[in-house]
Amino acid sequence: MDQATAARDALAKALYSHLFDHIVSQVNQCFPFKTSSTFIGVLDIAGFEFFDLNSFEQFCINYCNEKLQQFFNERVLKQEQELYKKEGLNVREIHFIDNQDCIDLIESKNNGILVLLNEESKLPKSTFQHFTTEVFQKNKGHFRLALPRKSHLVIHRNIKDDEGFLIRHFAGAVCYNTCEFIGKNNDALHSDLEAVLHTSQDNFLKSLFPNKQEADNFLLPTKKKLAFDSIGSKFKNQLNKLMEKLRNTGANFIRCIKPNGTMQSSSFEGGSILGQLECAGMVSVLQLMQEGYPSRTLFNDLYKMYGKYLPQKLAKLDPRTFCQALFRAVGMDSEDFKFGMTKVFFRPGKFAVFDQIMQSDPENLKALVSKVARWIVVNRWKKAIWCAISVQKLANKIKYRARACITIQKTVKMFLAWKRHRPRYDRI
Hints:
This is Unconventional myosin-VI isoform X2. Keywords: Actin-binding, ATP-binding, Motor protein, Myosin, Nucleotide-binding. By secondary structure, the protein is mainly alpha-helical. The chain folds into two domains: 1-18 and 43-207 and 226-248, Methane Monooxygenase Hydroxylase, Chain G, domain 1; 294-427, Alpha-Beta Plaits (2-Layer Sandwich). It contains 18 helices and six strands. It has helices spanning 2-29, 56-87, 100-107, 113-121, 128-138, 154-157, 181-185, 191-198, 203-207, 215-219, 231-247, 270-279, 282-291, 299-306, 312-315, 319-329, 350-358, 362-427, and strands at 145-146, 164-169, 172-177, 295-298, 337-339, 343-346. A three-stranded antiparallel sheet has the order 1-2-3. Strands 4-6-5 form a three-stranded antiparallel sheet. The longest helix is centred in the last third of the chain and has 66 residues, at 362-427. It is extended.
């Protein structure tokens, strides 16, 4: 009876999976182009899940959230600060919590939970108790892993040590009940059921399974066996492909915050919201935005964008000097922007203010051009004066050192003469 139920569920999942892939394929074929190097995609996933009873579904969803949180940390926090260092910006470093150890606990090739689950599922007599025990033995002392009795909820503390485990995720600790992990991880389809699908009288159903077997395979009295096919491995591979695609895109993030636990409008629980923001790394992001420069553009891009507004003699400036003159001319505060090696960085909202000034009426642009020209003349005059003063200081320093050398020589000669002739004076 249990085998029949498992076979029925596997058939339903296979039909659903192939139908879903077919719908996606049909939608993609409706696009007017087959391939494109540029696209706009929207990724909407289930948020972090935590219930009284957490099983394999919640484990996979939270594993996905861990991977996406790591991508968020890399793209928004880590890469941003690496760019500041590369460009030579003196911005205070913002620290954030790295969740790589939690991801390794789940997907490590040696002792990861998914690997141990697959190994247990292949055993002739697999049990969730043995699987749970293996998880603790192979990952003994891991900070992210704990016994169910460590949970702050009474309902989870009642779970036996070999019936579940607790993982400290980035969003909080979750206690998983492993009783159904092995069954839910098995996505096998019985060979005779697969043959039934291949020989179905429904043409649409047959088209969903393109890798047909010969009809004789269905009719011959072959040994029927249920091959193991891991849901966890499929999920891991699909997730890694998704992460690879995301890393090749310019991603923007929308964070959804649950305002309250009662599902009521206009109700905000401050403590809960703050906890969600801290767990999601938003506090670190806000600190980085306050300390850093979220808007940036290349010198050359600004030069191409606004060089047309200036006369030819001013437009011949090198891009960096051009940007310096432009920002001084429009009266931007030096705290609102910062020059790097190849880019100029702006405080939040300041680039929009600058662009609005540059898009103003011609009369204002004429005044702006005169300011740019005046700034260039003044700046060059200041540089000339500074160079002259520096040369004068250098000359004075050389003269001072020459006089100092003479004084040192006189003092040394006097000391040597005193040392040589002193015995003669002592005998007198």
